[in-house]
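in:
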């Protein structure tokens, strides 16, 4: 709430899927690692006349999987549409997208500030990448079609976000869900996940007659900055008795704010109509069941389990981002529940090797209790350091002076504070020196 004006914010999130091939052709889907520009292309993704698109089944399934994770209703029948506009990064003059019959709609994602409705989750193709540069002293725009027709999922929210803080929480939760599903790395630095926001201010909490769209947002912080700067700008304009122009603006970090780009397009400007080259997609109960079977345990469910185990929110966040570490802790909790908090602290704060198994962690804690270090992984790290620090002594031992091992064992004891298990130390050290 700002000066009795309520921010009304909606988000649009584009996510590039990590399928092997592109959305409507067999070209390799790997725009970030291509050896050179325009190398992963064909007549379809170059928009050449007569080329026919063939939908990527896996990409459709991944889109529906995202919809299921966001509690959406999945359509029994869906279709692809042509969205017309003319930019150099769209060679056909239209983008294959979805309009009135998306794969998924009417979902939600809960935040601590309240529920955010999901209007739709639909499938489309990405555009080519434009790079503005100088060649032979002239300003030019270079086009790389490696990204053209990469599978792109668009997630559109209801205008249920009312602050920058809520926006950041929502977007982080969404990113974590997408990564858990394994359908995208959602890397915003590379453009694997791109953000847009629609914002307006309302005196009565109802959706006003105008909205401003902000594009070119590639971080949660920039999204929050966009929201905050637009709230200030709109408040000033409304305070004068005027209404902000309905337009598209771009975020600029240099000014921590937005700049005008163009007047906002309406749906009619895109002249949507069903793509005549792609038949309707029928989603049977059997097919939907197969997709649903891929749903893993989502971050919110994992967080609930960790909370029941007494794990702090900050530690939970670290564990959820590291599936292997999380699996270790959940296994540890079954074997030694009373020591779970201690184990979490050791792993999260990097006091032990993050690759330790649950049983190794228990051994480590037990040896620490007994004052004896009998954890093989931890002990091996100390032994390797002592061996590396004393190459001359190692050479003497390997040259036949076996008494030299006594010096190395002494150094290991010193490094471990006298806690290294003598028998295990001797065994591990001799094994290392003979390899």
């Amino acid at each position: 709430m700002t000066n009795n004006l309520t921010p009304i914010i909606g988000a649009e999130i584009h996510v590039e899927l990590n399928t092997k091939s592109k959305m409507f052709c067999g070209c390799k889907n790997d725009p970030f690692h291509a050896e050179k520009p325009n190398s992963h292309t064909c007549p379809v993704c170059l928009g050449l006349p007569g080329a026919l698109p063939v939908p990527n089944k896996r990409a459709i399934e991944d889109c529906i999987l995202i919809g299921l994770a966001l509690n959406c209703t999945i359509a029994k029948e869906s279709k692809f549409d042509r969205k017309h506009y003319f930019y150099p990064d769209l060679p056909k003059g239209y983008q294959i997208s979805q309009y009135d019959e998306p794969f998924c709609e009417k979902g939600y994602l809960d935040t601590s500030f309240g529920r955010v409705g999901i209007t739709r989750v639909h499938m489309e193709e990405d555009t080519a990448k434009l790079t503005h540069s100088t060649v032979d002293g002239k300003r030019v725009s270079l086009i790389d079609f490696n990204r053209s027709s990469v599978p792109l999922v668009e997630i559109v929210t209801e205008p249920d976000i009312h602050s920058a803080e809520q926006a950041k929480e929502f977007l982080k939760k969404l990113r974590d869900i997408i990564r858990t599903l394994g359908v995208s790395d959602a890397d915003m630095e590379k453009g694997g996940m791109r953000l847009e926001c629609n914002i307006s201010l309302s005196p009565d909490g109802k959706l006003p007659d105008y909205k401003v769209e902000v594009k070119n947002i590639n971080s949660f912080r920039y999204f929050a900055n966009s929201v905050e700067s637009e709230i200030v700008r709109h408040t000033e304009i409304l305070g004068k008795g005027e209404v902000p122009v309905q337009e598209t603006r771009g975020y600029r970090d240099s000014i921590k704010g937005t700049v005008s780009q163009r007047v906002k397009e309406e749906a009619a400007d895109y002249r949507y109509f069903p793509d005549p080259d792609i038949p309707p997609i029928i989603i049977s109960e059997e097919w939907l069941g197969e997709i649903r079977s891929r749903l893993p345990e989502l971050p919110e469910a994992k967080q609930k389990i960790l909370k029941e185990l007494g794990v702090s929110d900050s530690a939970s966040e670290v564990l959820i981002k590291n599936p292997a570490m999380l699996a270790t802790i959940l296994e540890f909790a079954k074997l030694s529940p009373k020591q779970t908090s201690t184990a979490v602290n050791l792993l999260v704060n990097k006091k032990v090797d993050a690759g330790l198994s649950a049983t190794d962690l228990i051994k480590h804690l037990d040896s620490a209790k007994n004052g004896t270090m009998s954890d093989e992984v931890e002990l091996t790290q100390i032994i390797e350091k002592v061996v590396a620090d004393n190459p001359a002594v190692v050479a003497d031992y390997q040259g036949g002076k076996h008494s030299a091992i006594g010096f190395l064992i002494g150094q290991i004891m010193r490094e471990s504070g006298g806690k290294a298990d003598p028998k295990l130390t001797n065994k591990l050290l001799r094994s290392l020196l003979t390899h």
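note: The first strand starts at residue 6 and ends at 16.
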